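Note to self: user wants both folds in one dump. Writing first protein now.
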Amino acid sequence: MICFGCGILVGLPLFFILRNALPASAAALIMIVVMMPFFLFAMYERNGEPLEKVLRHIYDAKFKRPKQRPYKTNNFYTVLTRQAKLDKEVRAIVQGR
């Protein structure tokens, strides 16, 4: 309701001001364009999140977080082979080879 109210408070006076200077259809189109962000904030949802959260995610992805993320894997097989190699080395040290 707050967003709808703000849209009406901004759009209607703008329409009545522009109606005298421009044709009514042009004033109506300008009013619609000016009121659209308010209605989008009131109505738009994506994946259950309102528009302000979606815009925050886009801002974080574009500007806040680094562009290139380092590729790091945690491959369990390489961990096992590294551990087996270390165990073999420890056995060789203990046995005196």
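First done. Writing the second protein, which came from a different request thread.
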Amino acid sequence: MIYLELFLTFFKIGAFTFGGGYAMLPFIQDEVLAHQWASMDELINFVAVSESTPGPFAVNIATYVGSEIGGVFGAICATLGVVLPSFIIILIVAKCYLAFKNSRLVKGVMTGLRPVTVGLIGGAVLTIGQTVFFPVAFSWSVLATASFWCALGIACVAVVMAFKKVHPILIISMSAVVGIGLGYCGVWG
């Protein structure tokens, strides 16, 4: 039963989210937490691992969640679930594209979807940011901890490096090394 549930949940995520893997993040968060497949902290770890590994984010996180919940077969079910809707939609779009590429309706839909995608990604950033910087709840005492300032520093340096077009692999690798170092120094608790 868990395999069907994984497949259907990720099929729904894949079918009703536009804008790529990051736009799926709020939907994935809601579904994973609602099914109690992971805590928010575990989900953030899933996101970090999924972002740090090769391949599309949505496929990686579906595979990771499926694997944690149902082993190898769970990973296969979740991955197929998230990929299948896109595959079907792309086949239909490719078949119909030439006939509708100049349609005002199609252009309008695409224009309307762009800001929604940005909003969904922004919402995911805020939710994950809250959990990373204020894991329990917002409190002024958090601002006095070394872990808050180290996490903020890593995030700021990563943003600056991203705007300077530093390769993402280098940013991720450097962040991992700094995180390991700070962990050994006891900053992360």
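Dump finished. Worth passing along: The chain has two domains: 2-133, 136-189.
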